[in-house]
Hints:
The chain is α/β, with parallel strands linked by helices.
Amino acid sequence: MMAEYPYLFKKGMLGKTPVKNRIVMSPMGDNMANADGSVSEQSIAYYAERARGGVGVIIPGVVSVDYPGGKTIACQHRLDALKYVKGWECMARAVHRYGALLIPQIHHAGMSTDIGTTEGIPPMRVSEENKDASDKLVDIASHVDGNLTDGNVLTNQDIKGLEQKFIQCAQFAKMADCDGVELHGAHGYLISQFLTPFVNTRTDEYGGSLENRMRFAVNIIKGIRETCGPNFIIGIRMPVHNWESDGLTDDDSVTMAKTFEAAGCDFLDISGGFTPTITALLETQKYYQGDRVSLSEKIMGKVNIPVFAVGLLREPEFCEQVLANGSADYIVLGRALLADPDWPHKAKTGKSCEIRKCISCLDACFGALAKNQTIRCIVNPRVGYESELGTLKEASVPKKVVIVGGGIAGMQAAISAAQRGHKVTLLEKSDKLGGQLHIASVPPHKAYINWATEWYLGETERQNINIKYGCDANYQFVKSLNPDTVIIASGAKPWTPNIPGIEYGIQAWDILAGKADTPENKNIAVIGGGIVGCETALLLASKGNQVTILEMLPDVATGLEMANKIDMLADFENNHINILTQAVVKEISSNQVIYERDGRNSLAVDAVVLSTGMKSVGQDLANELENDGINVVIVGDAKQPAKIANATREGFFAAINI
């Protein structure tokens, strides 16, 4: 069968090893290792599922060469001793079964970590602290794991020892039947710290000139090639743009690429180094698809080994064009393969429209790592459960399942129940499915949410789910369907506090849904600084309004993932949005808001927008059905107002537990 995307599915070579296509799974921290850093059953199942989905190369991220001192996440994989080879050999067998290559990314955090993560071992610094570097590093540290200016300075002997640890790690990888290794030389970790002039101020053979700053990486590459032989794949994730005025230049990056090739590298995985804000590397919802492709373009044609492109790559059509344009030799997919492990298979078999796309929320992947949890995915609730769930099997006895509510929780429950062979009826009171997804995609930078909506709508059709629109799902009607199980996913509605003059307020939901006109060029108070209130404030500011957020808590958007919150706060500053925290609203009128904050205050306004929380809907129906002996499960906002991740996970498990 001729591939719909000939460039994506063209066979390739990494060194002397053939690759079945041009799709690479990006190295990402997953926090899936056992507590001692050994390979877990969960991590094997997780990577095997992506191999089964058709990816050509899998690069497990941040594998420690020096545990625990070089760690950057709590449960990080390691390959720094002989006893860890067996686990990696098991992973290699699981990945090779599906024709994919396994190339662990070997890593040392250097000073980009903290003493808690390193289990009491002081982080390692490349050079002595200097004030100019410290000012930059403190700003960077506020967005990563620790204070990057702390730690012990590496001696020349320490550096030689670390070079050997990288080389030995590669030897262990070869013993485990891995196909090669990738050095992590980007993102401000140890190799990147050596390369970067404002960090590396050494005056010995490892500092000063670019040649000296590359010496650490070059010695490692040469050492791996010498000890692991000509058939072992060696790559490096390298920085091409540092977003720093005194960082690496484009010419430096080209020189590094040529030098790494000459030292023995078989591929270059192009990314960034130090950044003023972590959002530039994580690519929040404000970034466009293919944001870092311009970096790989700077290296293409300068070397004779494959160049990888990474950076918010989502759609096969877009990725195909990147390769067709000569912007890269291979495409690197990270979060895209969290959202849909079958991305390659669907693209190859003409089912691109069925790909479940990542929406760049970062909430359950990077957000989970920030809380020392295993990564998850809000649109793919299987992530992190691959081992315990295995392959989803059809139910031995199909049941009649009625689902009340067609928001994302209800759609997920309906899809998962139908996949197991249950007879599903989905009841939706409006004329369309999607619920709050439709309003969540309206504020600035939120359009990627439409991808989730499109997939869920399409999948309910593909699963041939019986959907009843405009349905009043009352007790009598639901009972008349004679269900074995009822899943209540009726969502929530805005909660209105008892504040004098509250009737002057406009619900944020009504503005987002287009039920109320969006004010323009007015002074507006947004009452409530949760995620919805903050995103509505940005929408209002985009219409020329002067916006003030009043929030009774000490902070705004407390439930928002960190990187997206950093972007949001920057947007607040750029749009001159005023934030008043610990402000308790006491009274509203047509032209002012009275609030308490260090005394009684007033704010002159032309309009007031309300975003004061939500109230679950559906408990009364659940009680009636349960009293009649019907099995009922409540999911999503109907259970407790929360985020998309809660809704999809609860809908998924409600269905597969039937």
